[in-house]
Structures are given as structure tokens and as C-alpha cells.
Automatic annotation (TrEMBL):
Keywords: Oxidoreductase, Peroxidase, Signal. This is Glutathione peroxidase. Belongs to the glutathione peroxidase family. CDD domains: GSH_Peroxidase. InterPro entries: Glutathione_peroxidase, Thioredoxin-like_sf. It comes from Plasmodium cynomolgi (strain B). SUPFAM superfamilies: Thioredoxin-like. The active site is at C74. The keyword Repeat does not apply. GO terms for biological process: response to oxidative stress. One of its GO terms (molecular function) is peroxidase activity.
Length: 201
């Protein structure tokens, strides 16, 4: 399974190079973000739902947040959707909010339009919060994800640049005060971090 995962990552590199070599470096280029570029709090940002409605992050004050970059057509999707739904069922009433942000940055594994994403979510009975597609790496990284990376120690390299999210289903855990507590890789499944979440509720 790990060999297949590494092969897919290599394949996406070759695909980008073939389509447009110049995009290779903007996509994988690490970025540097100064504190002055960031808003003081995660609650100062706005995000958009699939229907285009703007949602202030302040909506989620005093909640524990699990913020995920997702894709509908990834090999990791089925297990993640099932386990995220399970976490929602068990912990939402205790104060957990799951926020999923689709992206096409990894092998174009997300549908190109929001109608298809919505249909996929309905078919798979997604229960948690779902938002409009964004970019999570490179120069066009969404402002919220810049904030998440900048405020997570494990997402800084030795040169002070922000690390790239490696694939679909990276996960940031945020406590009730809006502080980024941890980042979990795509290979860490949601139920594997249930204890980390419950300790913050």
C-alpha cells in the first residue's frame, strides 16, 4: 500500500511536468508567511460553503475543530468519510466540529464543479461541514490554511518555510480557544486520533 501511495505521488509530479512544467514549481514551492500577514485569530477568517455562502470561522468559537483537506475520488476517501461520520456521530454533541475543504491539488482527485461534489456527499451521506474547493499548498494557499500551517510547529521546516501538505486528508486539530494543537498526516485515520480529540472536549 505504501509503495502504491509513493507511486501515485510520483505520478502526479510527472503529470504536472507534462502539462505545464512552469506549474511544477508554483505547486510544490514552499511559502514563507510572516506573522504580519496573518490575522490575530482563526476566528477572524471567513470560508465559503459549497453553495457560495460565506461562513465566519467565529461560528465555531468554543468548539474543537478537526479541519481536513479532502477529495472525492482518492483511494483514502471511503475510509475517511466513514470514520469522519463516525466521529461526528459520537462527538458532535460534545463540541466537535469537522470542517472539510476539498482540493484538486493532488492528482485532480476532486470533481471540477460543486454540484458533483454535493451529489457525492449526498450519496455517501456526509454528515459534517463541507466547504468550497480551495488550494492548500503553494502560492495560492487559502488564507485559513496559511494560518493553520503557520501556527503548527510541525509544519515549519528548518528554513522557516511552511511545509506542504502531502496528500488528500491531512488533518489539523484546533482546541476550543482557537489554537492549533496538532497536524496529522493523510495516513493517520480519524479514529486513530479520537483520544486526542476527546482530551480537548
Amino acid at each position: 500500500m505504501m509503495k502504491l501511495f509513493l507511486f501515485l505521488k510520483l505520478f502526479v509530479v510527472l503529470l504536472i511536468l507534462r502539462r505545464n512544467p512552469a506549474n511544477m514549481f508554483s505547486f510544490f514551492k514552499k511559502i514563507t508567511v510572516s506573522k504580519g500577514e496573518l490575522r490575530p485569530s482563526i476566528y477572524d477568517y471567513n470560508v465559503k460553503k459549497l453553495d457560495g455562502t460565506t461562513v465566519p470561522m467565529s461560528t465555531y468559537k468554543n468548539k474543537v475543530l478537526l479541519i481536513v483537506n479532502s477529495a472525492s475520488k482518492c483511494g483514502l476517501t471511503r475510509k475517511h468519510v466513514d470514520q469522519l461520520n463516525e466521529l461526528h456521530d459520537r462527538l458532535n454533541e460534545r463540541g466537535l466540529e469537522i470542517l472539510s475543504f476539498p482540493t484538486s491539488q493532488f492528482l485532480n482527485q476532486e470533481f471540477p464543479n460543486t454540484c458533483d461534489i454535493s451529489s457525492f456527499n449526498e450519496k455517501n451521506k456526509v454528515k459534517y461541514n463541507f466547504f468550497a474547493p480551495i488550494e492548500v499548498n503553494g502560492e495560492n494557499t487559502h488564507e485559513l490554511f496559511k494560518f493553520l500551517k503557520a501556527n503548527c510547529d510541525s509544519m515549519h521546516d528548518m528554513n522557516g518555510q511552511l511545509e506542504n501538505i502531502g496528500w488528500n486528508f491531512g488533518k489539523f486539530l484546533v482546541n476550543k480557544s482557537g489554537n492549533v494543537v496538532s497536524y496529522f498526516s493523510p495516513r493517520t485515520y480519524p479514529l486513530d486520533i479520537e483520544k486526542n480529540i476527546t482530551e480537548l472536549l
